[in-house]
Amino acid sequence: MPEILSYGFMQRALLAGVMIGTIAPLIGVFIVLRRLSLIADTLAHVALAGIAAGLLLKTYPVAGALAAAVVGAVGIERLRVSGRLFGEAALAIFLSGGLAVAVVLISLARGFNVDLFAYLFGAITVVQPRDLWVILGLGLVVLAHVVVFYKELFAITFDEEGARVQGVPVDALNLLLTTLVAVTVVVTMRIVGILLTSALIVIPAITALRLARSFRSTLVIAVACSLAAVVAGTVAAFYLDLAAGGTIVLTALALFGIASVAGGRWPRRARPTS
Amino acid sequence: MRIFGASQKASTAADGVPLVDLEHVCFRYGNEEVLHGVHLQIRRGDFLGIIGPNGAGKTTLVRIMLGLARSQCGHVRLFGSDVRDFRDWQRIGYVPQKAVAFDARFPASVSEVVISGRAGRVGLGRRFTAADQKASLEALETVGMAEFRDRLIGRLSTGQQQRVFIARALANHPDLLVLDEPTVGVDLEAQEQFYGLLRRLNRDMGTALVLVSHDVAVIAKEVTQIACLNRTLAFHGTPHEAIASGAVARMYRADSLIVTHTH
Predict the structure, then answer these.
(1) Is residue B92 within 8 angstroms of chain A, CB to CB?
(2) Which residues contact A134 (CB under 8 A, 6 or more apart)?
(3) Contact between chains at A209 and B90 (C-beta distance less than 8 A)
(4) Given CB atoms, is B90 within the 8 Å cutoff of chain A?
(5) Are A214 and B107 contacting, i.e. CB atoms less than 8 angstroms apart?
(6) What is the ipTM of this complex?
(7) Which residue of B has its CA nearest to A270?
(8) Using one digit for the tens of pLDDT, what is the confidence trace for B126-166?
(9) Of A18, A204, B172, B196, which residue is most buried, by most CB within 10 angstroms?
(10) pLDDT (tens digit per residue) in A67-90
(11) In the beta sheet, which residues pair with residue B110?
């Protein structure tokens, strides 16, 4: 057994990383294609307010993050559907609002501490057994929903109106998808940190878009890129003593660069064939 | 061709019941009256063309038929039931304007797009079965696109994409197919093919068609019924009557365009 696997904390880190590396890009493909890439970043900032509240109240911060992110997700979806705000203004409101609440709560708690830094920048190597169970449990919930509602999620992502005409419950599915983004953000921030969460959700998805030949292959390629980045980043963190979160995202970006060059050889422009 | 339930169900339904029955339909958007007192029936086997100038309410009327917008007065009945109670949405196929329907970079293969047309029929959380695959392939064969089934939808020409969208609607074996400006951006040769396909669907398969278009010449040549819409229904009858009555000319104030197609 390689040295890296002989430590309990690295076993937990890799297990958590594999679960997160699977669900983050799955959700990412849907939100990128729905032009909601910024929603992950927004919900991460809202989750930060929940973490700050959790640290202040000395409860489990992940529970606070989950509650805040889900409430934020429902609020964003409501505002978006109401159509009263222009474009992505709903996201801007929640992003700055979440950050403002977090900053106020942190000042009440008399400033930053080590725990807060772990949530901001990620700390995959300090995943506690309780964290691991939470990550695996929430991850399975997200995965199960994507599998069960795959055909509906495809239909509303490809053509929302066309899905509505067929009687697909579009509004409920939109709410479901936004809630799944919230859960994914909370799970993902554990390893790459709040500030880089949306990177792990979005970058593997756009990498896959460069190479894919079908929707299913987009999902497979996105998960493969993400898992490669997570494992490479975690291993690098162990042997080279680098920050795992940053290394994971840089690896994901490198894969995106490679895919962009390789994908360029098969132009994706519409090419009439007859 | 039509092996599955929909067509049988349709033929057992009372033939006298209109597929779409609009009675005194109206729609206001803020202070602007978009539709006013529209009466319209679509029956089995009809091929109805809806024409009218920009802003005449054509798209709103289509959205009301599809349950995407609610008429603010009167009654909307689909296959005999009130639109609010109607659940049989797979009996109505919809082919949107290509331009608004999707992004050409969307990573979906042709077969994924077509089978997604059956998502509503299969039911929430259930997987597609071999029957769904078969119906999708048959729909692709009907529109002559089966050999392209593994291509990315964005790699096809506009005309081919439009046929894929029709296949997506046909995968449900709908009794009524609603097409909103389907030939915008489609070259002439592909349009010719496209109208040939519509004729076959209407005559050979008995699918009722509603075609919204600004192209009066084409409409007059292809359809069996014509509705001239300008907030209210200015005329409803055969294309020949529509032109003879001058309704089309009044609507467009472009007599020269019409004269060339009256004989």
Answers:
(1) yes
(2) A62, A187
(3) no
(4) yes
(5) yes
(6) 0.85
(7) B155
(8) 999 999 999 999 999 998 999 999 999 988 888 888 889 99
(9) A204
(10) 999 999 999 988 888 877 776 788
(11) none
